[in-house]
Each structure stands twice: as C-alpha cells, then as structure tokens.
Amino acid sequence: MRVHESIDDRQGVALSLNNIGTVYQATADYSLALHYYERSLAIHNATGDEVGQSLNFNNIGGVMRLQGKPEIALDFFQKSLAIEEKKENRKGQAIRWNNLGLAHHDLGNDRRAMECYLKAKKLNEEAENLLGLADNWSNIGSLYESQKDLVRAREAFQNALEMDKKVENSLSIATDLSHLGRVGEASGEKEKALDHYLRAWKVNEYIGIKDRILKDLANLVRLYEELGKPEDAERIRRIASQVQSPTK
After folding, report:
1. CB 3.0-4.6 Å disulfide test: which of 23, 25, 44, 178 passes with 33?
2. How far is CA 122 from CA 83, 204, 227, in A?
3. What is the pTM of this model?
4. Exposed, middle or buried by CB within 10 Å (0-12, 13-18, 19+), for 208?
5. What does the pLDDT read at residue 8?
6. Considering 128, 163, 184, which residue would you say is the last residue of a domain?
7. What mean pLDDT is predicted for residues 188-209?
8. What whole-number distance in Å separates Cα of residue 106 and Cα of residue 117?
9. Which domain holds residue 137?
C-alpha cells in the first residue's frame, strides 16, 4: 500500500485497503475488516469508481451479516446489486443475489431467500459460471434441509457436488460431501452418511485443514458408535487424537 501512496495511486490504495479488510474478515476480526472496507469505500466514493464501490458495499454487507445484522447487510447488498445491474455484470449480479438470499434466510424469510437463490442460479447458468452454480445449489440445499425437505436437500447438495467436481474445487467438494452425510443421517440412512463422511475426511485430509478434519472424524466416531462398531469408533478416536496433538 505504501508504494501506491508514494505515487499517489488512489485506486491502488483503495484496493490494498479492501484486501487488508478481507484478511481481517477471514480471521473474524470484523471491526478492523469494516474499518478498512470503509476507508476503501471513501476513496472509491471520492474517485467515482463504481466497480470499487460495488466491491466495498458487498464486503461491508458480508461483515454486517457475520455480525448478526442481516437487515443492514441487505441494504449494502442492494446497493452493490444496483451497480452490478447498471454494469450488466451477470456474475456480479449473481453473487449479490446469492448474498441477498443468505441475509433473507438469516431473517427467517425462506420464501424470499429461495427467490434470491433462484435468480442467482439463473444468472450463473446464463454466464456458465459453474463455481457460482455450485454455491447456489449448496445454499438451496441448506434451505431445503432447514425445512426438513430432505429429498430436495439431497438433490441440491448432489448438484452442488457435481458442479464442484467439474471445477475441481476440493474445499467445496468436502463441504458438499459433509452436507450429504448430514442429510443421510437425518434420513436414517447411516451407512450412506458414513460413506459421505469418510469421503469428506479424505478430501479434507488431502487439503490439510485441521479443524475440518477433526469435524469429519467426530462425525465418524458418532456414526460408528450408533452403528454398533466400537472398534472402528476407537480407531477413529486414535486418529483424531494424533491429528489434534501430533507426535514430533
């Protein structure tokens, strides 16, 4: 950022501030994330950079949602969407519609949330954006799952999985498999759930994210115990212990 400041590159400074905000958001330091997003927005407002404004509005909306303020998030997502529609950016519109759906779901307005997810899905289909489509299907699945419509939830999560496989998005593949495992459990299909959790574990193990691996292993321990397989449960416990406190 200092380089951009030294040459009076205001756009570069704004982008750097936004990127710093993203880092703080990823570490759940939402106050600092908001601070940097707002500083970035101030520059974009001053320069009239609508693309930058849209990015900032969307990011601020995301932080508001994470802070449990979906009503405020909706306002920022709408402002961002208006710019994306003006620019006729289908992918950008799809992201904003998806985020609007998440905020409506937070507010308990499932009907409106589904409308937003479907608008996002249609835009991503038109743009042939498989990554965005996978996200849409995943959110649709979560909505159906919350409504106890497990048949439609499974179908949506399966669609998300197929999309993520096509774009080789390993992190989301693991998430999709975990979702399918959860639906399998809720449907009483514990063997299917076990298979999905095992596959999710293997993907997360490949990626190497400790918290996700431990979550998968906890699911496996629980299911093995429920299936009357104590030896398998104990084997997974030992693996989890090793992951938690690896020997040097």
Report:
1. 25
2. 19, 30, 41
3. 0.91
4. exposed
5. 54
6. 128
7. 97
8. 13
9. 129-248
- How many folded domains does the chain comprise? 2
Nearest to 114 by CA among 69, 64, 149: 149
DSSP labels, 45-105: HHHT-HHHHHHHHHHHHHHHHHTT-HHHHHHHHHHHHHHHHHTT-HHHHHHHHHHHHHHHH
38-50 pLDDT, tens per residue? 999 999 999 999 9
Same-domain pairing of 60 and 135: no
Lookup: tokens for 66:
């994470």
Determine the average pLDDT of the residues in 79-105.
98
Q: What are the tokens at 54?
A: 């849209």
* 168: region left, alpha or beta (phi > 0 left; psi from -120 to 50 alpha): left
Find how far residue 172's CA is from the centre of its chain.
9
